[in-house]
């Protein structure tokens, strides 16, 4: 058994890392099962309209929208006339009830149609295509859950990373094994490189488990039609500083999240090596990294401005629309990562 295989065994089997991975997988599966994989009636009407009208605005689509608008107005007028006739006792209660039921049924899509009209007006004004955008808005933090799902996924990922990696790296110091390894030629360097590889393997699994279900659910419920459209096709995203296709925008979101997971892992490793004690390292990391995410989930969103929460979400940072703030934040995160790596290299090799 080579050193890397040995370290994988120590992390996932003897170090109980597999228990952390399985617990995280079960928790992610349970959370996914709680999600609604169905849409409301209004959303269904909106989806039908937007899928029917998808693409560039033209004369036929404008004529269809005008026809629908007049139809809704006609039923509203009919209801008003019948209500007046009923007040004048010109029609019976049964006739009034029948008209009310008919009009209520015909006006069910009206709320969705009003949103479609807004989207159509925006598309005509800016020369962008119409598209069904609800799924993309969910992924970009503009959905019903807003940033809560971002923070929930990040909190679970961060806690799992801490529980997986901190004990693994601190154990060699707390049980005195590192002192023995250090007596061997390049023993500490080889061991730490093998540990890094094993930890990155675990992190990749946790990252996929945290975010893949969200992408799958959005695809099942809403679909990804219009993925090649520019982000300016969605009004909420058009105000940002990025100009790219929607698929590239989603790639940026998840690449930045993966970068945050990598930075977190490096920071966890550095903190574990620094404290050289499992309990102290885990407690310190939970307080610094995970606790602010928990505060956000409890409704204290102000903590996002004094923590890394915005970067764990990514959407909160990008939706701010300030390119300079994003670049400054990336600089700080890069500095933290480089500092953690330098500390690890100095104290582990």
Labels describing this entry:
single chain, 349 residues, mainly alpha, 16 helices, 76% helix, elongated
The total of helices stands at: 16
Order of helices and strands: HHHHHHHHHHHHHHHH
Gyration radius, to the nearest Å? Answer: 27 Å
Largest sheet features: none
Number of E strands = 0
> Could you give the distance between the termini?
22 Å
Helical content (DSSP H or I, runs of 4+): over 70%
Strand content: under 5%
State mean pLDDT (0 to 100 scale): 88
Which blocks of ≥5 consecutive residues have pLDDT under 50? Answer: none
Class per helix and strand makeup: mainly alpha
Global morphology:
elongated
What does this 3D model show about the protein?
By secondary structure, this protein is mainly alpha-helical. About 75% of the residues lie in helices and about 0% in strands. The protein contains 16 helices and no strands. It has helices spanning about 5-15, 15-35, 40-55, 60-85, 95-105, 110-125, 135-140, 150-175, 175-180, 185-220, 235-240, 245-275, 280-295, 310-315, 315-320, 325-349. The radius of gyration is 27 Å and the shape is elongated. The two termini are about 20 Å apart. The mean pLDDT is about 90.
């Amino acid at each position: 058994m080579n050193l890397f295989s040995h370290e994988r065994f120590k992390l996932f089997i003897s170090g109980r890392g597999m228990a952390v991975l399985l617990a995280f997988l079960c928790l992610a599966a349970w959370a996914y099962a709680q999600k609604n994989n169905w849409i409301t009636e209004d959303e269904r009407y909106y989806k039908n309209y937007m899928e029917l009208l998808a693409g560039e605005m033209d004369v036929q689509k404008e004529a269809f929208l005008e026809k629908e608008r007049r139809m809704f107005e006609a039923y509203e007028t009919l209801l008003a006339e019948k209500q007046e006739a009923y007040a004048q006792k010109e029609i019976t209660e049964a006739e009034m009830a029948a008209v009310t039921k008919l009009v209520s049924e015909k006006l069910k899509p009206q709320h969705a149609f009003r949103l479609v009209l807004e989207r159509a007006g925006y598309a005509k004004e800016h020369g962008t295509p119409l598209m069904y955008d609800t799924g993309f808005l969910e992924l970009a933090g503009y959905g019903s859950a807003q940033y809560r799902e971002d923070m929930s996924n990040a909190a679970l990922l961060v806690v799992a990373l801490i529980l997986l990696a901190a004990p693994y790296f601190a154990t060699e110091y707390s049980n005195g094994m590192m002192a023995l390894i250090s007596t061997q030629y390049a023993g500490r360097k080889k061991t730490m490189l093998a540990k890094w590889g094993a930890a990155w393997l675990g992190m990749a699994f946790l990252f996929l488990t945290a975010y893949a279900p969200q992408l799958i659910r959005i695809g099942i419920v809403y679909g990804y039609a219009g993925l090649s459209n520019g982000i300016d096709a969605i009004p909420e995203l058009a105000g940002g500083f990025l100009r790219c296709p929607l698929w590239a925008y989603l790639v940026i979101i998840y690449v930045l999240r993966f970068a945050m997971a990598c930075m977190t892992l490096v920071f966890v490793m550095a903190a574990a090596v620094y404290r050289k004690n499992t309990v102290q390292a885990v407690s310190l990391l939970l307080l610094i990294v995970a606790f602010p995410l928990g505060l956000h989930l409890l409704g204290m969103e102000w903590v996002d401005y004094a923590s890394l929460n915005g970067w764990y979400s990514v959407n909160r940072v990008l939706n701010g629309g300030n390119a300079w703030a994003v670049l400054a934040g990336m600089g700080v995160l890069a500095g933290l990562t480089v500092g953690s790596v330098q500390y690890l290299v100095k104290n582990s090799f």
